[in-house]
Amino acid sequence: EAGVAQSPRYKIIEKRQSVAFWCNPISGHATLYWYQQILGQGPKLLIQFQNNGVVDDSQLPKDRFSAERLKGVDSTLKIQPAKLEDSAVYLCASRGGGSTDTQYFGPGTRLTVL
Amino acid sequence: TQLLEQSPQFLSIQEGENLTVYCNSSSVFSSLQWYRQEPGEGPVLLVTVVTGGEVKKLKRLTFQFGDARKDSSLHITAAQPGDTGLYLCAGVVDYKLSFGAGTTVTVRA
Questions:
Q1: Which of A7, A63, B77, B100 is least surrounded by CB atoms within 10 angstroms?
Q2: Are B67 and B28 in contact (CB under 8 A)?
Q3: Parallel, antiparallel, or unpaired for β A109-113 and A53-56?
Q4: Searching chain B, which residue's CA lies closest to the CA of residue A9?
Q5: pLDDT tens digits for chain A (114 residues)?
């Protein structure tokens, strides 16, 4: 079974530029999460999708961050405009249905904002 | 702000030694998970503990969940270089994870 795929793996941009990250979850997984992991910290949940609907985006900085999962499969996370403090690894995770609480993480996208 | 406090932040030991990592919170969780993360990769689930006082063993790894379901520990016996990595605990509420800051473990050969 293929795991969670993310691209790109690395991205370097200058502040005030925009950037987008892509995630393809495990086939059949209805729930998708985006996390931000700043160096020296654990992952922090940004947004949770159930199929193509948003379940929780309370920690998403909505003035600059946006995310969508239009067809309930792939998802895109965008930052516009980027700030220096957005430098982090952005992790995508997916979870199957039912009572399982196991999330499967992708390898992440490392973003550096200069 | 991390709801879960992990200690120590860094741990460096010799191969064959034992180590313990702690995870503490003032909040009660429905369950608690331990992950290991290697450089350039996402976290990988090691174990989920659900019941207060529960002890789970996974080969040389022993996980304990506190009676009040607020704290947990991970003990590694006879550590090997392959155990090197970032160990993260995460509290689970409504299928959402709240992670600690992690403990970086280095096992020297």
A1: A63
A2: no
A3: unpaired
A4: B40
A5: 689 999 999 999 999 999 999 999 999 999 999 999 999 999 999 999 999 899 999 999 999 999 999 888 999 999 999 999 999 999 999 998 776 779 999 999 999 999
